[in-house]
Amino acid sequence: MCGIVGYVGPQQAAPVLVEGLTRLEYRGYDSAGIAVLNPRSTAHPSRVVRAKGRVRDLEAALPARLAGTIGIGHTRWATHGEPSEANAHPHTSFDGRVHVVHNGIIDNFATLRSRLAVDGVELTSDTDTEVVAHLVARELAGQDGAGLGFEDAVRAAVAQIDGTYALAVLDTANPDRIVVARNGSPLLLGVGDGEMFVASDASAIVRHTSQVVLLDDGDFASVTPDGFRTFTADEEHTARSAVTIDLTVEELELGGHAHFMHKEIHEQPESVERMLTGRLDDRFGTAKLGGLNLDPRELRRFTRVKILGCGSAYYVGQLGASMIEDLARIPADAEPASEFRYRNPIIEPSTLYVVVSQSGETADTLFAVREVQRKGGTVVGLVNAVGSSIAREVDGGVYLHAGPEVAVASTKALTHMSIGFALLALALGRVRDLSHADGKRIIAGLRAVPGQIAQILAGEEELALAAKELAPAPSLFFIGRVRGYPVAREGAQKFKEITYRHAEAYPTSELKHGPLALISPELPTVAVIPDDDLVERNVTAAQEIRARGGAVVAITHPGVELGDAATRRIEVPRNEVELDPILLTIPTQLLGYHAAVALGEDVDRPRNLAKSVTVE
Ligand code: F6R
C-alpha cells in the first residue's frame, strides 16, 4: 500500500530513489514520483518528477540530468483520487517550498481541505496527502513571517491530522535533511557510512546498508547524512538504535525465473526445510516454539483458539484451526481480521488469539491485535516479516522464515503459515492429550514435506497443461470438503487474483444445494479429492459435475479411483491426513501461475492489488 523511500548523502539521489522504488513497487504501482533538492541551483532548488503507472514510466519521464543529493520518492496504490500524474506523490505546498510523500490514510483530510480552501490555498490533486504539504508550509511560514523550524513544523502539521501515515518531508530551505513521521504505516531508517536512507521496508535499501532503525508509531526523525535524531510529539530526543537485518540483494532478484511468483513457488522445498530446522523435538515428539513466550502450563490454560488473518492468510487460518482441533482437540476457528473489531468481539482470557500475516503490516490484522490486547486477551503471531509492526506488537510468536516474498500473490509464505500452524497444533496437542507416538508421527510428516513439495513441483509440465485448459474459461469452481475446503478457497483466490477469471470456492457438499445449476461445458471445476474418509462422496460429487458436462481437474492422492469423474488427474504424495492440505495446495499455486502466464497477464503485479495492505 504505497512505498516510500528517501536518501540524503554524497550520492546523486535520483538513481538511489528509483532503485528503491523498483524494490517497493510490490506495494503499489498506480503511479510513481520523486522530488530531489539541489540548493546549488537557484533556478531549480527542487525538482519533482511524477508519472502515472510503473516505476519504469517514471524512469522514462526523468530528465537526463537531475542533480541533487537529497530526495524522496513514492510508489502509489491509489486510495483517494484516481491513478494519475496529478495525484501522484510527492505533493508540493502552495509556495513550492515543501514536498511530501505519504503511505496511509488521512481520515480528516476533507475537513482540512475545506479549511485550506477557505484560506485561499489552491488544491491541485484529489488526494488526502496534499493537505500535509500545505500544512507544513503554513507552519514554516508562520504568521507575520515568524514560522517554526522544519522539525517543529512537521510536528505541528502532524498534530492536525488524524489517521495513519508514514511521511517523508523535504523543505527547500533546509536542504540537508528529511523529516519523517510514523503512525500506523511502516517506516524505517537505513544507516549508511556518511549517508542515510528512509524506506517503507528494508528491501528498498538493502543494496546500500543492512543497518536499520525501525521506527515506532508516534516517532518522528530528522535525518541528515551524518545520522538521525528521533523525537516524539512530547519529547525532543528518544533513543532508537540500529539493528542488523538479514536480507540479501540476491533474495530480491529473479535468479533466472520469469517471475517472482515462480521463483517463490520453487523456493518452497528449501525454505520449508530451513523453517523446520531446530523446531522439531524428536525426544518429546513436540515442536520447540520458544518465541511464543508461553510455558506448557500457560499453554494448557487455553480452552479455545481464535485465528485472525486477512485474505489468503485467513484461508490458511481455517486450515490451522482444523489442525489445532485435530491435534490438540481444542475448539478453534478462523475469522477475517478485517471484520473482527467491528463486531465488538468478546475477548476471553481463556482463548488464545493467533494472528497470521506475511507482511506483518496488514492494517486490519494489526488493529485486531490491538483490539485483543485492549480487552486483556493474549495474542500471538505467525508472522514472516521480521521486525514488522505485528511481530513487534504481539505477546509472542513464531517467525515463518519464508524469506522475502515479492510477488503480490502469496505462495511460499502461505505454505510456511500452514507449517507454522502444524507446529503450533503440535505444541498445543503435546501439552494435552496428543500421544508421544502421534507427536512423532506428525514430526515425521513435517520432515517429509520439503521433499514432497519438490516431487509436486517436478510435475510442473502437467500442471501447466491443465492450467492452459482452464485459462480460457470465464468462470470456474474450486471445491473441497472439510480440510480440503480451505485448499479450494486458496486455490480460487490465487486463480482469480492473477488471471482475472471469476473463480469461486465452494464446499463440495454444498454444490447440490444451488451452484450445480451453473455447471456446463463452459464452467470447469478444480476438485480437491484427498484419500480420506470422504473420498467416495467427493468422487460422487465430481461425477455429478461430469454428468452435467463440466470438466473436472482432480487434485488427489495416488490410488484414488476416480473412474470417469475427472477429465484430468493431478496427484500429490500422501502425508499424514492432518498435513495433507499443505501439499494439496501446491498444485493450485502452479495452476494459477500458468493460467495467468497463458493469458499474458502481469503475474507479479496483478491490477488493483498491492502486497502489503497497510490501509483499512
Ligand atoms: C493473496 C494475498 C492476500 C494476503 C492478505 C494478507 O495472494 O497475498 O490475500 O494474504 O492481504 O496479507 P498478510 O499476510 O501480509 O497479512
Automatic annotation (TrEMBL):
Domain Glutamine amidotransferase type-2 intervals: 2-226
The keyword Transferase is assigned to this record: yes
Protein name per the record: Glutamine--fructose-6-phosphate aminotransferase [isomerizing]
Keyword Cytoplasm: yes
Predominant location category: cytoplasm
The enzyme's E.C. designation: 2.6.1.16
Pfam families linked to this entry: GATase_6 (PF13522), SIS (PF01380)
Function description: Catalyzes the first step in hexosamine metabolism, converting fructose-6P into glucosamine-6P using glutamine as a nitrogen source.
Organism superkingdom: Bacteria
